[in-house]
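Hi again,

Forgot to attach this to my earlier email, sorry! This is the prediction with NAP bound. I've pasted everything inline since the attachment limit keeps bouncing my files.
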Amino acid sequence: MKNKQYDLIIIGAGPAGLSAAIYAARARLSVLVLEEAAPGGQILVTDWIENYPGFPEGLSGADLMMKISEQAQRFDAEIVTEEVLETDFSGPVKKLRLSGTEVEARAVIIATGASPRKLGIAGEDKYYGQGVSTCATCDAPFFKGATVAAVGGGDTAVQESLFLSRFADKVYLIHRRDELRATRILQERVFENEKVEILWDSIPLEIKGGDAGVESVRLKNVKTGEQSDLPVSGCFIWVGVTPNTAFLKGTVDLDKNGFIIADQRMQTSVPGVYAAGDVRNTPLRQVVTAVGDGAVAATEAAHYIESSS
Ligand code: NAP
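Structure tokens for the complex follow:
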């Protein structure tokens, strides 16, 4: 880190955080972006993005993230790999504790995104990495010619099941209702895909396995109550997301699901602290909305810094 004190610290280097960095750096604020892993967030593991304007053929999540990262660095945003352990937003100078050091800023944007939600069933943790996965881009090639299960009915479950079907011979998509939540174009594609069979009105009760990993999923039909074992060698879980807000420990207001409450200016319950992207209580979690949030949050942070000087 070049300094200890910045105008603005952005926590998270996904699409929201890096867009905020571009806007803030162009507003000539001194900007530090803190990211605990590789810049990119969830889209790094998104196989293909075809609804982000400007790329008519679509592009991979990794490619899009590389371009956004390059753009942020071109405008001199400092991006550092560090986890934020604790936040103190009580005074006009916001303090962030990192491992071994503390950094300060006049404003903070929280853009820490969300992580895949767990089902909370037996076998899920035990076989994680041994057949249980939340990342098709990372793990689908291990299931070449295999029969696998996928759980969920949203955009992620449907899009990633389609990706999985390029490797697996058979994908059972397990959904708890009789209608998918995913966007229509994805539904049409999955209905046309001969390798994907949807098991409607079904929930997984347990993931069973042995020394070599997953062997089957115990299912229950929620309408009939009937239970059965589905033999599979993998189980991908895509049942929504949970916000990455644990490190905030009550310093900003969250909604009942843990997402940060922010207004249309991305302002949280603490003046000078903003939220952007999937981590906030937004009605739509897409790259295009995340980058919009980032731009608004950075612009508002710049106004806040100027007016409080
Ligand atoms: P989501 O939209 O919240 O969908 C979660 C799915 O999991 C729902 O179908 C839900 O069933 C099911 N589910 C939730 N809890 C469950 C449980 N305990 N047991 C069984 N099933 C359960 O989450 P997502 O698909 O991860 O998407 C998250 C956000 O990212 C969304 O805003 C989505 O639009 C966006 N996204 C967009 C794209 C794209 O544009 N191509 C791709 C990926 C993600 P119910 O339907 O019954 O509630």
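Residues 51, 119, 151-157, 159, 176-177, 181, 203, 238-241, 284-286 surround NAP (CB under 6 Å). The helical segments are 15-26, 61-74, 136-139, 155-164, 184-192, 287-307.

That should be everything now.

G.
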